[in-house]
Amino acid sequence: MAVKKQTGGRGKSTxxxxxxxxxxxxxxxxxxxxxxxxxxxxxxxKTNLVHELKKIGLGVAILxxxxxxxxxxxxxxIKSGRPVPSPPEVADTPPQPLKKTAVPKVRMTPVVDDxxxxxxxxPVDGLPLTKKKTAGLKDKNSAPAIxxxxxxxxxxxHVKKPPVRKPGVHMPQIxxxxxxxxxxxRLALELFKVNPDITFSILPFSPYGKKIAGKLGxxxxxxxxxxxxxxxxxxxxxxxxxxxxxxMSPDKLLAQLRKDLDAVPGVTGVNNHMGSRLTAQADKMNxxxxxxxxxxxxxxxSRTSPDSKGEASARLFMLRFSHRDIFLDNFQNVExxxxxxxxxxxxxxxxxxxxxxxxxxxxxxxTLKVELPKLRGTVQVVRASRLVAIPG
Length: 392
What we know:
The protein is α/β, with parallel strands linked by helices. Among the domains are: 46-85, no CATH class; 158-387, Glycoside hydrolase/deacetylase (TIM Barrel, Alpha-Beta Barrel). The protein is 40% helix and 13% strand. The longest helix is centred in the first third of the chain and has 58 residues, at 23-80.
């Protein structure tokens, strides 16, 4: 029995052992750790969302940077004049016909293509000419190709010309002025060979103007300045470098005129290139004639406007003056030019003198080669300076 008690006591000690087992309590703490896991997933989800938003923001920033860079490059290309892609071209609308009194007969500005230059084809120039067409202008199909202005309806025959016939001279006299000199050396020299009394009117700042003046001047040819002036169609029709414009102040206009005169050395007179608007403005013509008077130069009005104030200004300034009677080569056709030349001769018989204006066309050269020799003993070819006088 005592043994049982002892064992009972031992049993007590052993009975306490189950009470010491705290495994259930430990098992209760384990779920606490598992409870925290959902909170960790939520935090991780938030972190991933932030990363995605950052990626999207970075992508948007990169896209904006690319767009800005492209815009800047396009702006640089446009300002620098480099070619940029353009939309497909639309066919030009045919120009509307103009009234006869306002349609200029024109030639187009030459485009020199050095890459196709072949001196063998043109031993004097080595200068092939191609044409650049401009909408609304009439294209003439022969070199040299420069813009000029002719009005068929401007007939100066009714304008009283200064008396220029000298006592004892009974033979009618004509002067032939070739305008637009400066783009074709060969034609200029060939025309001089036909008759040394042909007058050559040179455009300022033309490619070969000074060279031609340097060749023809020492040989005794009479040279004039073919002075660019504003036409009524400006700016659609551009008179070219050195033009005098109605918008210029007096100081600017006179400064440009002096530059134009300096560009063509050895000239004895001036005639207008285009100028249907400027020659009709008395104040501008007065300003121009102040300089011409100082330099003792004469003026021949090409008469591109029926309202030209040239003669009135010449009378005011006591300036030697005359005007064109006939345009010889509105069309580059030998038959047509021959007809115009005969009109010039008829005008010289009627008035005693007449002035014809032509241009450096091959057809004009061919016509003069045939017609001028026929005049011997009947009509005298003289220089333009012989047919000018102060208007009465």
